[in-house]
């Protein structure tokens, strides 16, 4: 094995994933050869840590390719993609390059399987490091394959529902990359198998609590255990995170566009409910789940299953992109009227005339989340009053190309309202962090899966979909009792409500683009706007048209041409 490569050079799976500029080139006086890498703990762990690259956070703003938003930048890739530009040569939503992270992980597994690294002279500590890091690697390999599957699964030219190639070994530069796609279900099973193997090795949580040690680690001295699995590692992938990821994968697999399979809904509901019961079930729903993005402190942990580190330094880059122009932002992502219409009235009933909605007073008596997620005409935000209608100056709809809103709205969700962008170019920033998985998503995974099994009141491990949706809507500030929820009796009606709650609660966190596809819903609903002309509000029925030819995304064309075993999805 030591002779496989002289220097560690992680090569991309398929052409174009990594350029020659990224190779780790040795220098004359400091050569890190394979013998060194395969025996030095810090160097080997550095390879594993590359597996944490390309994790998907909440800042992609891919909603601009859905009915929830448009991007006002004329050269924005998601705008081009949504407007008919998507093809096998141009796909800004592609995740094929996540195979690079897979290869890093496979190289690490190859190294530790040689058994030559001494993490510690203490035998127990050394053994536990091997266990934990192998578990991390297996979990990360599964996760990156899930990302690729989510973006590239589909019905192939052969008519079969296909997944993606599943790579379990490091491939040399001159190795065989011509690897066929597995079936969709075989890919799901391969991901699940890696997750399960990881669960046999990982602690549920990285903790300093002796009472929180999992059975697989109870044979070890606790002081030694803390060295390996103590709280300093609590942002690394853990057993709790893996269980949540398994629930996410099971729901994805069960969805109508894929397997439409009750057994996977059952798996998703069971996994989610078991994990939710560790935090108290429905009563454990975090109180700050609606505005988690305004609370940049460790107190966010009761909403977070997995997040990135909270930096010491402050920033304002996202706000500079998204704030309205009058407060020195570029107003880049504009929520649509379609999205605004999804918010119910204060009493929880849909926003229709029959339920008291007034199109000339459109924001009165609405779901409080609307004001928390969207900057509307007349709102105070970012240190100023934002008017998007007549007399609104540079904030007025379409007044400055590529800065002013195109829909009549600006984005507030995911932004910190205390950021200030000063006229002189300086800024008062705030701390921000990446979010990979929230408990609110897990509650919604449970609700969707359990409803698909048995309807609104189907109980799994003591929890029902109705209880989850009731808790989420009560937290949002809707009137109680929730008479609209009480009126929901059918599985179909609850399905629509759960999907709408998911649309609102997880908005602008990168979910809707993939949700529409897995649900098999229309991708081509035109983006709508709303404009105040000084006297009346008027709808703008088509701010931007959508033109997606398929629910399924293409495999990169150069991969299909170079490696004929890789079957392209139909229509691309």
Can you tell me about this structure?
The chain has a domain at 260-309 and 434-512. The longest helix is centred in the first third of the chain and has 30 residues, at 123-152. The strands form seven sheets. A two-stranded antiparallel ribbon has the order 1-5. Helix content is 35%, strand content 8%. It has 572 residues and is mostly helical. The chain is built from 18 helices and 14 strands.
Feature tags:
mainly alpha; two-stranded antiparallel ribbon; 14 strands; signal; membrane
What's the tally of helices? 18
The overall pLDDT average reads 93
Helix- and strand-based class? Answer: mainly alpha
Please mark out the parts with pLDDT under 50 across 5 or more consecutive residues, or reply none: 1-29
Largest sheet: number of strands, sense, barrel closure: 2 strands, antiparallel
Task: Provide the helix percentage.
Answer: 25-40%
Beginning-to-end CA distance, first to last residue:
40 Å
Strand content: 5-15%
Number of strands: 14
Radius of gyration: 25 Å
So what's the overall shape?
Answer: globular
Strand line-up of the largest beta sheet = 1-5
Subcellular location: Cell outer membrane
Family: Belongs to the SusD family.
Domain RagB/SusD: 323-572
InterPro entries: SusD-like_N (IPR033985), SusD_RagB_dom (IPR012944), TPR-like_helical_dom_sf (IPR011990)
Quick description:
The strands form seven sheets. A two-stranded antiparallel sheet has the order 1-5.
